[in-house]
Amino acid sequence: MGDGEPAGATTQPRRPASIGRVLVAAGGARLLVLPLTGLSNLVIARLVTQAVGIDQFGVVMLVATISQLLMFADLGTGAAVATARAQLDTADSVAESGTADSVAESGTADSVAEFRGTTLTAIRTTLVSAAVLGTGAGLLGALGAWPWLLGFRGESLASSLNVSAVLALSAFAVALPFALGEAVLRGGGRTHEAVLLQGISPPTALLLTLVFTHVDAPALAYALVLPLGALVAAFCCAVRAWTVDRASVQGLLRAVPRRRRYPGRPIAATAVPMFVVMVGLPIALQSDRVIIAHRLDGVSLSDYSYAAQLYLPLWSVVSIAALALWPHFATGARDGAALRRGWLTGLVILSGAGVAIAGAYLVFAKYLINWMSDGQGSPTWTLLFAFAALMVVQCAHVTTGILLIAPDKLRFQAICVVALVITNLPLSWVMTPVLGAAGPVYASAITVLICQLIPGVFVAARLTRKPPVHSTDVVDA
């Protein structure tokens, strides 16, 4: 057996659920933890503002969220692992059908080997990526380059900003291999479990904030609370994935350093285009703080940070719910009508949710930001409407993005994301002095609509009109 596979390794299959059911399960799990997440983020923002002042709050949050620009650091391995895990359940379902037993058992064994080999390659890849990221962050810190990269010239912040940026990125790097646990849970139809475990992150960050406040920590020490909270959550997901798929992943860690004996499986067909997508999206959509830091003042950056801190948990409800569709689309529907029905159902539900969430954001954002900032923040209605528009556009696109996860469709998405980056950054740079902190947000809404939503709908409509295909022809992990 290859890839260190134990004899008789199997994974308990999970029956496919309806589109509505998986969306409700994942979205409901996110809604369940959202009050705790939102409350934790509100209290963190208030405590940090009281500790460092509004002028430095934006700097702290810029460093704390710098890893959002590096979500590609897993090099697309999570997508390959999730797809391989989803196809493992498909093979188990075929084996349970009782038809062609020898073929079904062979297919199940091959799927287990594929899943193990894919996961093994992913672990090795993320370990290398983590080492490179940590080393690169440390080198930039040693050269004193972080203040310049982040748009700050003040000597008073230079030293502490270098240290905090290195530590924040190091925590993010350590979390990379553990984050594969979320991909395993997602591919196994357990997105709701991953959501609940990831809900540990904000309370952990709040606890660390309280500790730092108690010990009167330096201002930029608060930039570490979010990355450390995410690290704890990633570790919990990895532990849960191991307990769920223990038989299939047994012995993988021992096989990691033994590359010749356990070579793993190729994942480039899925990982490379996903890597391009994951490089482009953060650059296009998470670079707003950097642009504002270069083009506007610190108060504008703080106002943006308050508005974004409210936006991100709300957007996560829809984006995480959409991830629950991964097993359904990754394994491929048996007929075009079912695939089209699943796509349209997800499109309608999540687009409607986006409109509702955007409306709620506009109603409550002013009041919540006033409390978060201890009365010091004053985001404009232009900024709030920009985030509402971005919410609607992103929610309308997210189902299509999950549908198009076959390697050839991922290549199409990669092209769209490259176009997004090429258009978004210059537009954000130009619009920021004109519209203030709302400029890059409006630029994101416009470019996502033109570069992702519209072309994605055309391709998805054509894909779902195609004749039936077998699931193994749809996606190759």
Automatic annotation (TrEMBL):
<feature type="transmembrane region" description="Helical">
    <location>
        <begin position="22"/>
        <end position="44"/>
    </location>
</feature>
<keyword id="KW-1003">Cell membrane</keyword>
<feature type="transmembrane region" description="Helical">
    <location>
        <begin position="381"/>
        <end position="405"/>
    </location>
</feature>
<feature type="transmembrane region" description="Helical">
    <location>
        <begin position="412"/>
        <end position="429"/>
    </location>
</feature>
<feature type="transmembrane region" description="Helical">
    <location>
        <begin position="304"/>
        <end position="326"/>
    </location>
</feature>
<feature type="transmembrane region" description="Helical">
    <location>
        <begin position="264"/>
        <end position="284"/>
    </location>
</feature>
<feature type="transmembrane region" description="Helical">
    <location>
        <begin position="219"/>
        <end position="243"/>
    </location>
</feature>
<feature type="transmembrane region" description="Helical">
    <location>
        <begin position="195"/>
        <end position="213"/>
    </location>
</feature>
<keyword id="KW-0812">Transmembrane</keyword>
<feature type="transmembrane region" description="Helical">
    <location>
        <begin position="56"/>
        <end position="75"/>
    </location>
</feature>
<dbReference type="InterPro" id="IPR050833">
    <property type="entry name" value="Poly_Biosynth_Transport"/>
</dbReference>
<feature type="transmembrane region" description="Helical">
    <location>
        <begin position="441"/>
        <end position="461"/>
    </location>
</feature>
<keyword id="KW-0472">Membrane</keyword>
<keyword id="KW-1133">Transmembrane helix</keyword>
<feature type="transmembrane region" description="Helical">
    <location>
        <begin position="126"/>
        <end position="149"/>
    </location>
</feature>
<feature type="transmembrane region" description="Helical">
    <location>
        <begin position="347"/>
        <end position="369"/>
    </location>
</feature>
<dbReference type="GO" id="GO:0005886">
    <property type="term" value="C:plasma membrane"/>
</dbReference>
<feature type="transmembrane region" description="Helical">
    <location>
        <begin position="161"/>
        <end position="183"/>
    </location>
</feature>
<protein>
    <recommendedName>
        <fullName>Polysaccharide biosynthesis protein</fullName>
    </recommendedName>
</protein>
